[in-house]
Amino acid sequence: KAGVTQTPRYLIKTRGQQVTLSCSPISGHRSVSWYQQTPGQGLQFLFEYFSETQRNKGNFPGRFSGRQFSNSRSEMNVSTLELGDSALYLCASRSDLRGYNEQFFGPGTRLTVL
Amino acid sequence: AQKVTQAQTEISVVEKEDVTLDCVYETRDTTYYLFWYKQPPSGELVFLIRRNSFDEQNEISGRYSWNFQKSTSSFNFTITASQVVDSAVYFCALTFTGGGNKLTFGTGTQLKVEL
User: Fold this and answer.
1) Tell me: the pLDDT tens digits for B54-109?
2) Which residue among B8, B9, B41, B91 is the one 20 to 30 A from B24 at the CA level?
3) Burial status of residue B28 (CB atoms within 10 A of its CB: 0-12, 13-18, 19 or more)
4) In 3D, which of A66, A103, A59 has the Cα closest to residue B1?
5) Percent of chain A clearing pLDDT 90 (strictly above)
6) What backbone torsions phi and psi does residue B111 show, to the nearest 5 degrees?
7) In Å, what is the CA distance from A94 to each residue of A19, B85, B99?
8) Beta strand ranges found along B27-69 (DSSP E)
9) How far does Cα B14 stand from its chain's mean position?
10) Contacts of A92 in chain B (CB under 8 A)
11) Segment A68-75 long-range contacts (CB within 8 Å, at least 24 positions apart)
12) Are B79 and B19 in contact (CB under 8 A)?
């Protein structure tokens, strides 16, 4: 079974631009969540999608948005990029919303904002 | 509010030494779930173990073992006979019933295993 895939793996953007990151969950998994990892703030939850609906949202500004498609693939978008948005963005999937089900993470997209 | 504390920022050991990574958590929920993840240099978080709050049995998987103690709100991870391949950042994480996918992570412990 293929794991969680994320594209692109690396991205360089300049301040003010916008970016879209993509995540394909494990086949059969309907829940996708996104995390931001930075040296200063560590791993922080961005949002969670299940059956195309946002179920949970972290404490990030509105510049960060996401969506999920009917095939469970998810995208996240960051508009008006700031230097502080440079981070590793990790996507995770799991089969459903039951709390005890572990999440499986993708390799991440490393975003650099210049 | 949920909180996970990994007080050890970095640990260095020599191969074949045993090493314990500490994790202390805070939660008001009576039903919660604890996890350990490994992050090698490649960046991908690798799931290691899940423990439910109502199951305090310790677990052993090969060279890995976990000690869950609700009385001290700790979920420590021990690697026996460490190997160079164990070098990575290890994260402890917590979620609760109704928390969905929202994992609260600790700051991680960088483990370096040297020859």
Assistant:
1) 888 888 889 999 999 999 999 999 999 999 999 999 999 998 877 666 899 999 99
2) B41
3) exposed
4) A59
5) 86
6) -105, 125
7) 25, 27, 14
8) 32-39, 46-52, 59-61, 64-69
9) 20
10) 45, 101
11) A68/A32, A72/A24, A72/A25, A72/A29, A72/A30, A72/A32, A73/A22, A73/A23, A73/A24, A73/A25, A73/A32, A74/A22, A74/A23, A74/A25, A74/A32, A74/A34, A74/A49, A75/A20, A75/A21, A75/A22, A75/A23
12) yes
Nearest alpha carbon to residue A48 among A23, A27, A28: A23
The answer to whether the CB of A89 falls within 8 A of the CB of A19 is: no
Kindly report the backbone phi and psi dihedral angles of residue A99, in degrees, each rounded to the nearest multiple of 5, phi listed first.
-60, -30
Tell me which chain A residue has its CA closest to the CA of residue B34: A100
Q: How far apart are CA A42 and CA A32, in angstroms?
A: 20
B67 and A112 Cβ atoms separated by less than 8 Å = no
Count Cα atoms within 13 angstroms, Cβ side, for B99.
25
pLDDT above 80 (res A94):
yes
β-partners of residue A57 are A47
pLDDT at B55: 83
Size of interface A-B (CB pairs under 8 A): 70
Whole-number pLDDT of residue A97: 65
Dihedrals phi, psi of A16, to nearest 5 degrees:
95, -20
- Which residues of A are less than 8 Å from B96 in CB distance? 99
